[in-house]
Design goal:
The complex is a heterodimer. By secondary structure, chain A is mostly beta strands. Helix content of chain A is 0%, strand content 61%. In chain A, strands 2, 4, 5, 9, 10 and 11 form a 6-stranded mixed β-sheet that branches. A 5-stranded antiparallel β-sheet of chain A has the order 1-3-8-7-6, with no helix packed on it. The radius of gyration of chain A is 13 Å and the shape is globular. By secondary structure, chain B is mainly beta. Chain B contains no helices and 11 strands. In chain B, strands 2, 4, 5, 6, 9, 10 and 11 form a 7-stranded mixed β-sheet that branches. Classes of the chains: A mainly beta, B mainly beta.
Chain lengths: 109, 118
């Protein structure tokens, strides 16, 4: 199985920046995904990294270092609607996704 | 484009009863997944279909769980009999096709069915 670690909770102020780290141990790495999940709703796709480096998409950016088994999701200019759980998921060569437990981000005014 | 549809959205049953969930994937998506998400945890894959064939059911508790995708489109997941520990959200996801590299394999999730077993 895969070992995926991410912090349980993070709190930040509206307008600030938050960085959610994810570390993983896996064989047959084939990509890393970040999903956002609001309470009581389905996970929605945010970003995908398969090569090292930074992928930027509006206020959200995701970084990957395959040699370190490390990724982060950066949320900029935080808004109240960004309060949600953020799931790190690793895909292996058999195209299976393994999810971390999720990081609950609370944005305060 | 319509997303992944699931029903029912909520279900409350007593232990030892049976329950079934339905999923309709995004049109044209060949691969369908059922996940179980227990409160406070990430989704855990139960079963994966490619068209109407099972690709992976290694984490499906086959003594009580079953799933089918007879025509390669809709799918049903059944629990019989249910146990207290089956209380969870059951998520269905679909992706375009297995074997296509890159973000084309992104999985898109339905709203889920919240199951409470009393």
């Amino acid at each position: 199985g895969q070992n995926i670690d991410q912090p349980t909770e993070m709190t930040a102020t509206e307008g600030a920046i938050v960085q959610i780290n994810c570390t993983y141990q896996t064989s047959g790495f084939n990509g890393l995904f970040w999903y956002q999940q609001h309470a009581g709703e389905a996970p929605t796709f945010l970003s995908y990294n398969v090569l090292d480096g930074l992928e930027e998409k509006g206020r959200f950016s995701s970084f990957l270092s395959r040699s370190k088994g490390y990724s982060y999701l950066l949320l900029k200019e935080l808004q109240m609607k960004d309060s949600a759980s953020y799931l790190c998921a690793v895909r292996t060569n058999d195209y299976k996704l393994s999810f971390g437990a999720g990081t609950t981000v609370t944005v305060r005014a | 484009e319509a997303g992944v549809a699931q029903s029912p959205r909520y279900k409350i049953i007593e232990k030892r009863q049976s329950v079934a969930f339905w999923c309709n994937p995004i049109s044209g998506h060949a691969t369908l997944y059922w996940y179980q998400q227990i409160l406070g945890q990430g989704p855990k894959l139960l079963i994966q279909f490619q068209n109407n064939g099972v690709v992976d059911d290694s984490q499906l508790p086959k003594d009580r769980f079953s799933a089918e995708r007879l025509k390669g489109v809709d799918s049903t997941l059944k629990i019989q009999p249910a146990k207290l520990e089956d209380s969870a959200v059951y998520l269905c996801a679909s992706s375009f096709s297995r074997g296509v590299a890159g973000a084309g394999e992104t999985q898109y999730f339905g709203p889920g069915t919240r199951l409470l077993v009393l």
